[in-house]
Amino acid sequence: MRRIAMSVAASTLTLSLAGCGMLNVTGDSTDASPTKGNDVTVGVLMPEKTNTRYAEFDYPIIKAKVASLTNKQGKTEYANADSDEDTQASQMQKMIDEKVDVILLDAVDSHAIAGMVKKAKDAGIPVIAYDRLAEGPIDGYVSFDNELVGEVQGRTLAEAMSDTSDKIVMINGSPTDPNAAQFKEGALSELNGKVAIAATYDTKDWSPEIAKSSMTKAIKKIGKNNIAGVYSANDAMAGGIIKALEAAGVTELPPITGQDAELSAVQRIVSGEQYMSVYKSYPDEAEAAAQMAIAKVQGHDIQFDALARDSVDSPTNKKIPAQLVTVVALTQNNIEETVVADGIYKVSDICTAKYKAACSTLGLK
């Protein structure tokens, strides 16, 4: 999968132009005879509710973009599987039975869902994998450069360490999520040889409680005063990890990574409890997915190809058309330039009464 990141510099420019409507891929096109008009229905399947981004950002942005691209005639059907692969299979079957025109799929289990992807394909319904690369005959893929995410996390954490003897704990994501393996691979490329990885754990369903339990085990194994940093694959787990450290009596928290720029994580970064997160532009990813879905179902092949200039391989399919979005490390130094500037949060959302003094120290007003 590393080869997909090789094209990110070129694709980033393409993406940013597309996101600003400058690629001329969102309007009417004569490059193909549309198979559908504007009366399309886009099925949107999201994987879990622990991470708040899906309900707060991804789906609302997709819904709004579909409406914009179809003169407000297009509809979206939404379902969230709450980390249950059988529930997601049932939700997808329902969308197939209802004959939606295209499905955006963020898989709970990328391998288990392959049979349902084939069912959709057999029913003439294109499936575009969203955020996580599902197996089976998918028609396209929109996500962030996941290995780059891990590299950003690992590099930022390594820079916070004082020497190569520093011990860190790795709390990785769910083994059923292919993104988690890529995050881990990217992180290890930056951490190996720079720090000592004293313990490593995978986290079923990205559960903060499981992450908390793993951190408790690591503290008992290594000693609370011997942990110089913690690699947490995402923000929700970072919250559980911090609880475990505090319960063990750690008053000066080590640098802890995260991902997703959740509001609670941004506040922890402001207060110094969490060292960093990875900010991923959900508007860019979600709008690109909506654009690809509409282009695909309306038969605008040139538009679709312009949006999917990268390619990726899954265990079952090769050269899947893809769009990969770049990412940035979020620290105390660039909160205003990232999540505030992009309209994800207002300063008032971040700087509630509890964090007002810390915000003032950082100059967040």
- Report, as a whole number of angstroms, the end-to-end distance: 42 Å
- Write down the secondary-structure element order: HEHEHEHEEHEHEHEHHEHHEEEHHH
Percent helix? 40-55%
The amount of beta strand, in percent, is 15-25%
Task: Please state the structural category.
Answer: alpha/beta
Largest sheet, order of strands side by side?
A: 2-1-3-4-5-11-10
Largest sheet: 7 strands, mixed
Overall mean pLDDT: 90
**What is the number of E strands?**
12
**What is the number of helical segments per DSSP (H or I, 4+ residues)?**
14
Shape: globular
Q: What Rg, in angstroms, do the CA atoms define?
A: 21 Å
The unreliable regions are 1-34
Summarize the structure in words.
The chain is of the alpha/beta class. It contains 14 helices and 12 strands. It has helices spanning 8-19, 53-69, 85-97, 114-122, 146-160, 178-191, 208-222, 235-247, 263-271, 282-297, 301-307, 336-340, 347-350, 356-362, and strands at 41-46, 75-80, 102-105, 127-130, 140-144, 167-171, 196-201, 229-232, 277-280, 310-312, 320-325, 327-330. The strands form 3 sheets. The protein has a 7-stranded mixed sheet, sandwiched between helices. A 3-stranded parallel sheet has the order 7-6-8. It has a two-stranded antiparallel ribbon with strand order 9-12. Helix 2 packs across helix 10 and helix 7 (208-222) packs across helix 8 (235-247). Residues 1-34 have low confidence and may be disordered.
